[in-house]
Amino acid sequence: MKLEKKHIDALDRAETLILERDYRGYLELKELLPDSAPTARTRFRTLFINYYGMNTAGLSDAFKDRFFEVLFGGNLIVNGQPDFPTILNELSLIPGRRGHCAMPFSFVSKLAAIHLETSPIYDRHVLDFFSWNAPPATRPKPDRINWFVDFLKQVAADYSAWAMDERIIVTLERFKSRDARLASCHGNRLLDFLVWKVGNKKLLANQ
């Protein structure tokens, strides 16, 4: 995706609107992830659920239990990339609290992203920023998964390119100056935060 002035201005404005609470949880999760002690795992799970709003998404306990088994399992990355098809095919078969199954694209992207910072987070704000539309639930599951994988690859490639753009570097450097831990984050993750804030604050609306 080619950045237009409206996108650059929106990302720059988003940086000024980001609050410490928007990224604090992610940084804490990254620090907790390597610790396999039971107390650390419990703290990680509680923080992840709260930070990403899993308790308000209609997910069942069975889904959350398996989700974190996968997250802590350590077999998510294959040949340097998240194994999205395997993860999605399994988790999409676990019913939510109302008994319905769904394709958990957003949560699976966050599961992968906590392990691999170059892997973007997927949500409606990212779709809007890139002006893409997700395929309907009536499409075959393999087609939907392939679409998801292709979309995230495109987002990751674009983020990496934008992070080298002098017009964006200024914004990223300003963002990184807020916290030493942000300075060590990959540019893709920093752009995740900015794109989310653009959507959250509707900074591209009516442009």
Q: How would you characterize this protein structure?
A:
- The protein has helices spanning 5-17, 20-32, 38-51, 61-73, 84-91, 105-113, 124-130, 141-162, 166-176, 180-183, 187-200, and strands spanning 77-78, 81-82.
- With 207 residues, the chain is mainly α.
- It has one domain (5-200).
- A two-stranded antiparallel sheet has the order 1-2.
- Helix 2 runs antiparallel to helix 3 (38-51).
- The longest helix is centred in the last third of the chain and has 22 residues, at 141-162.
- The radius of gyration is 17 Å and the shape is globular.
- The two termini are 17 Å apart.
- Mind summarizing the main beta sheet? 2 strands, antiparallel
List the secondary-structure elements in sequence, H or E.
HHHHEEHHHHHHH
Distance between the termini: 17 Å
Percent of residues in helices comes to 55-70%
Backbone shape: globular
How many separate helices?
A: 11
Spans of at least 5 consecutive residues whose pLDDT stays below 50 are none
Whole-number count of domains:
1
β-strand number: 2
Average predicted local confidence, pLDDT? 94
Order of neighbouring strands in the sheet with most strands: 1-2
| Secondary structure category | mainly alpha
Which percent band covers the strand fraction? Answer: under 5%
Radius of gyration: 17 Å
Q: Layout of SSEs?
A:
Layout: H1 5-17, H2 20-32, H3 38-51, H4 61-73, E1 77-78, E2 81-82, H5 84-91, H6 105-113, H7 124-130, H8 141-162, H9 166-176, H10 180-183, H11 187-200
Antiparallel strand pairs: 1-2
